[in-house]
Amino acid sequence: MSDTRSLPVPDGLEGDRLDAAIARMFGLSRTRAAEIIGDGGVLLDGAEAAKSDRVSAGAWLEVTLPPPPTAPVPRAEAVPGMRIVHEDADIIVVDKPVGVVAHPTVGWTGPSVLEGLLASGVQLATSGAAERQGIVHRLDANTTGLMVVAKSETAYSVLKRAFKERTVDKRYHTLVQGHPDPLRGTVDAPIDRHPAGDGRWAVVAGGRPSVTHYDTQEAFRAASLLEIKLETGRTHQIRVHMAALRHPCVGDHLYGADPTLAERLGVRRQWLHAVRLGFDHPTEHRPVEFSSPYPDDLSAAVELLRED
Fold first, then answer.
1. What is the CATH number assigned to the segment(s) 70-165?
2. Pairing with 199, which of 107, 123, 276, 285 sits 20 to 30 Å away (CA)?
3. What is the CA radius of gyration of the chain?
4. How many Cα atoms are found within 13 Å in the side-chain-facing hemisphere of 13?
5. 76 pLDDT above the threshold of 60
6. Where does the record place the Pseudouridine synthase RsuA/RluA-like domain (predicted)?
């Protein structure tokens, strides 16, 4: 069912293009906002307008938002290469392989952690949306490493709160181009959708607060191996912050990585791995920590650099 909303243009959007303003106001991509405008779903002061028209503060908008796409229903489907690191009555910790998302999403036809666990007969918490049962945090499809999934309802609520309150110790290793200066530091820069509306995220004034700590572990001729500690968990956070430092993750072409270096190292995705995960057990109330070795493709790239 469509949703029509009427509201004035905020002062902060004075002079913006109409598609950019709609995207900012409703959390849409620029592409999606332009589609809605093109379909006649936006009136500006009572008249249809073009996506490139500039808006004035206080101008009256009437926006008809189409119904959101229906989320896919999870199906039980085995995920080759997904390893169970730990399992008890409340949680299951998995080592996620490349090319696997956390849970089914609109438009994704590949495997997911959730569906792989269902195929293994694991009973997961049913709190939250049906297509995300038990999922308390996510990794990008091409980021490998550790994820914890809730099996009990208590674990789900405790872990969701722990991630929200930033008490979970999330450590990643990433291989970045060049050598960050200083070798150890913090990136504290807000993240939001990229203004281009092309699926990227970016450091944007007024975005959501995002904090990334990095520490150089090993320096090579053309790249550096960093350990990353996240305080926040924004979409693409490490990738965006490293790109903002002008040291993108090796192989991350979406955020400006050099394809020549990635090809030489045999890296066909961003070199990014969730290497350690620590938190208080949700029912046993004791600290637990899990670790994951590098997958073969990431390990091979580091060995090539060491040989240089």
1. 3.30.2350.10
2. 276
3. 22
4. 22
5. no
6. 90-244
* pTM for this prediction: 0.76
Helix pair 18-26, 30-38: axis angle to 10 deg = 120
- Block residue for tokens 């199906």: 75
Contact 122, 111 (CB under 8 A): no
Alpha helix segments (H runs only) across the chain: 18-26, 30-38, 113-119, 153-164, 237-244, 259-265, 296-307
Closest CA to 150 of 120, 115, 125, 119: 125
Q: Is 140 a catalytic residue?
A: yes
What CATH number belongs to 172-273+299-307? 3.30.2350.10
Residue pointed to by tokens 């490349």: 98
Q: Is the dihedral of CA 299, 305, 306, 308 positive or negative?
A: positive
At 294, list the tokens: 């590098």
Q: State which fold the 3-65 domain adopts.
A: 3.10.290
Please confirm whether the linkage preceding 66 is cis (ω < 30° from 0).
Answer: no
Separation between Cα atoms, residue 85 and residue 140, nearest integer Å: 19
At 80 the pLDDT is 87
Torsion of CA 107, 110, 115, 116, to 10 degrees: -160
Structure confidence at residue 24 as a pLDDT band (50, 70, 90):
confident
Q: What is the DSSP letter of 185?
A: E
Strand, coil or helix: what is 299? helix
User: CATH 3.30.2350.10 occupies which residues in the chain?
Assistant: 70-165, 172-273+299-307
User: What's the CA gap between 22 and 46, in Å, rounded?
Assistant: 16
Q: To the nearest 5 percent, what fractions of the chain are helix, strand and coil?
A: 25, 30, 45
